[in-house]
Amino acid sequence: MAYKTDIQIAREANKLKIQEIGAKLGIPEDDLLPYGHDKAKVSQSFINGVQDRDNGKLILVTAINPTPAGEGKTTTTVGLGDGLNRIGKKAAICIREASLGPNFGMKGGAAGGGHAQIVPMEDMNLHFTGDFHAITSAHALLSAMIDNHIYWGNELDIDQRRIVWRRVVDMNDRALRQVNVSLGGVSNGFPREDGFDITVASEVMAILCLSNDLSDLQKRLGDMIVAYRRDRTPVFARDLKADGAMTVLLKDAMQPNLVQTLENNPAFVHGGPFANIAHGCNSVIATKTALKLADYVVTEAGFGADLGAEKFMNIKCRKAGLAPAVVVCVATVRAMKMNGGVAKADLGTENVEAVRQGCPNLGRHIENLKSFGVPVVVAINHFLTDTDAEVQAIKDFVASMGAEAILSRHWELGSEGSEALATRVAEIADADTANFAPIYPDDMPLADKIQTICQKIYRADAATMDDKILKQLRDWEEQGYGDLPVCMAKTQYSFSTDPTQRGAPTGHRVPVREVRLSAGAGFVVAVCGEIMTMPGLPRHPSAETIKLNADGQIEGLF
Amino acid sequence: MAYKTDIQIAREANKLKIQEIGAKLGIPEDDLLPYGHDKAKVSQSFINGVQDRDNGKLILVTAINPTPAGEGKTTTTVGLGDGLNRIGKKAAICIREASLGPNFGMKGGAAGGGHAQIVPMEDMNLHFTGDFHAITSAHALLSAMIDNHIYWGNELDIDQRRIVWRRVVDMNDRALRQVNVSLGGVSNGFPREDGFDITVASEVMAILCLSNDLSDLQKRLGDMIVAYRRDRTPVFARDLKADGAMTVLLKDAMQPNLVQTLENNPAFVHGGPFANIAHGCNSVIATKTALKLADYVVTEAGFGADLGAEKFMNIKCRKAGLAPAVVVCVATVRAMKMNGGVAKADLGTENVEAVRQGCPNLGRHIENLKSFGVPVVVAINHFLTDTDAEVQAIKDFVASMGAEAILSRHWELGSEGSEALATRVAEIADADTANFAPIYPDDMPLADKIQTICQKIYRADAATMDDKILKQLRDWEEQGYGDLPVCMAKTQYSFSTDPTQRGAPTGHRVPVREVRLSAGAGFVVAVCGEIMTMPGLPRHPSAETIKLNADGQIEGLF
């Protein structure tokens, strides 16, 4: 039997007009701002009007540490959403938007895969509804205003050596990582060192995704620290009077985008902060809006549960007042085998023992997730090569952890394949057994928050921080930032900082190399490894083969 | 009587849904790709389907040299379009899109003014339908691919000192005019000098506006010269295999945008190339589409007639096979007075003699426009302070030139005020007296083309070009670029290169400082003065006061 590619399946989708998708959630046509026939933004006035409604149940989809075998977290998110709708539940999906630039380096991805996808796939990998362009513009405006302020006399006394605001562009362009600007003489300003990050790394992106509404957005934009003076006091975006105009540029970008699954179920795709130097979840406003409109909202978090779910719980849920009813942790037979030591080339061969060997990685994630007070279900995302014995090995292991694993075949069969998973997840959500709480309190010292995550989640002996870092954290506490949560920037491939250490390592230490304050987004970033905020293009970027074919379809993007 | 501001009038507009505007032109709902409820793009399949239809009459609105008094060229374009619809003609308007960045420096403008405006004004001054963001992205992709090519071994043998492709951003950011890139060591590439222009100065913008369709677009993108080798042979965007992916990024941006006037008449707003280093007209695809859908299409060209209309005729019409049926040259009593030597502060006082003194500027434009073989009508855009005697002075002068001047009060009264102008313009267009031809043939040597424009249009004694420039032009002729038209980059304020020389100067020379080849757009730029391709922000940019008010309306942008 020949299987179709993701793009073939996506192109054969019988999409409904976006107004019909909106109608499923009770959104009137006038409150949908359409972008073409299959995308729309939900109006702020409509969102304002539903605030008194009860919330639906929030379901987080997370996963084991990613392996080259592929886990299918988004695929499972979509499959579960479709499955819930199939069993008669009113369910919506919330995921992140894709960044444009990287698609021209490596091939872009679908949102989901097989028969569990969100469409229109082409648009979602290109300009979509322009949100990221708006973020790039708002960011660029502030950049220009900083140098312009200095040019006209520097009333705020900005120390030009201590400008911490870098520029951004939504393109993989390594030549811009480190630049000198304002060259060429008097009329171009004061030369200084600068650099560009990719747009998803902008603090503006993190802020857009954590803001409750436009006034919250403006406040947070104003709170951003762009530079320091010689006396080390911070200069805020507000001091440059940039916050109002940035908010105007982001007005439409703040509105959640509505699209649909292959099965015509509603999906919000909104925001896309980095999962390392930021928190890696879709926007708060999309999640909160979905919770007002649907009885079940399925969302996901970036990377594995040690990074993505931890930040979802400790940053997004804490700050937005959200609480998941149940967490679904995605695992696959193949990934368990890789954790059990099997090479990628050998994954097609049955190896029950290797599956068992790899399960401790999953087990630790289950324990961690439970520590937030939420019930956990494991979704075994089915691959065609999986054997019954291998699947049973995972089920047995998960049962031994006091949880339940359910095989789900949404990739192959769509919602028909995820019915069992959806039924069980809905039962658990309806049972209201969750008692969610972040794993550290707001008023814990920043260094202790880092230690808590490293010890309780990564199971490290300790985080190591030198005196300079400890002093920096204390300084921020004195400046009133002590209540902020911590955003860990660590490899996603291991519980440790060594990406090759699969399974469930112990006895390691987590060296914190650097800490950064995102005062507008509202977190302190602890950098525990190399963090690339501006990717480069490969030797033969996919851009070389991307083109329109004779039918006007895009080739080479997927 | 207190008059309302442009923004007040625009906000009170009774906009129709964009589908109703499309219906006026016979565009089915499915062929309109909506962006919100009041903007839409016209589908390529619909455009393909109307190619066999007859064309409507093309009416160009141009003006005298701009003065600080304001001429109201766009206002007259809109007023004339509304007037034509009022007298029962099926008319559409075509104008350019506004650039986002400059609105955060000085206050942004309406499209038109008073009761002759195009809406939605806020969107048109911000992201609109994302066209300029798409151009910025496509440009940025090529930029990244150039440095990436060098990074991975430079197979094409690009001379890093001779990269002529600069980067772009849609923001006024003087700090980026001249930069050094690829600093910071091996992994960031080979350091070199670079700089950023504003997006409207991108050759990609000029190409989008001159392309007939997506395959023409891709060919032209491939034709762009990005760098030279040590042996001075050019490296094309096609050599980097960037043209296909750039076309994909520009796929939607190529489709014309449909909006409406305050009187609910259709207006295409599409493309916005610089009027100095590029040709300064809206897109060919918008104009051609409008001509298939309406009986009369009113369009405008940037700056005064010496630059804008000349390029419209010699570049856009020549290359796209268009021919205007009539040209409307906008003049005002106030601008005539300024040309006659009156200071701006004294414009409110009647001064018939000064009007007469200033008229030669208008007279020369009339002569020039007639030299293209098209009938000319002068529209006197009425200001409330104009006296009858002043208006009559212009009418008498224009009559002495063998043309006709008509007072038009569209700013104050909408189409009621432009009925007379519309009636006369339609009569002339219907009489089919035009016998359009560009003023130089394709096969004239490039240097002679420059001389022709300088002598016939600017009435200079000569253009002066040194040997280096003459050799460069001959080299391009040998390389096969001799058939290209010339795009003049000169001050818009005078027929001469001295912006303070109002009226109708003679005896001047036009020094050509530099020539540039836009091989993809298809013209040779002759630079005759300082050309700013990256503006800066003023001491107090308007961004400082732009914000959302309590009603969610944008303040400070206008």
UniProtKB/TrEMBL annotation, chains A, B:
- Name of the gene this protein is made from: fhs
Q: Which family does it belong to?
A: Belongs to the formate--tetrahydrofolate ligase family.
Descriptive protein name: Formate--tetrahydrofolate ligase
Q: Which InterPro entries match?
A: Formate_THF_ligase (IPR000559), Formate_THF_ligase_CS (IPR020628), P-loop_NTPase (IPR027417)
The record ties this protein, via CDD domains, to: FTHFS (cd00477)
Keyword set, alphabetical order: ATP-binding, Ligase, Nucleotide-binding, One-carbon metabolism
Q: Key word Lipid metabolism present in the record?
A: no
| Single Gene Ontology MF annotation | formate-tetrahydrofolate ligase activity
Q: In which pathway does it act?
A: One-carbon metabolism; tetrahydrofolate interconversion
Query: Source organism lineage?
Result: Bacteria, Pseudomonadati, Pseudomonadota, Alphaproteobacteria, Rhodobacterales
- Gene3D superfamilies from the xrefs? Domain 2, N(10)-formyltetrahydrofolate synthetase, Formyltetrahydrofolate synthetase, domain 3, P-loop containing nucleotide triphosphate hydrolases
Residues noted as binding ATP in the record, renumbered to the chain: T67, P68, A69, G70, E71, G72, K73, T74
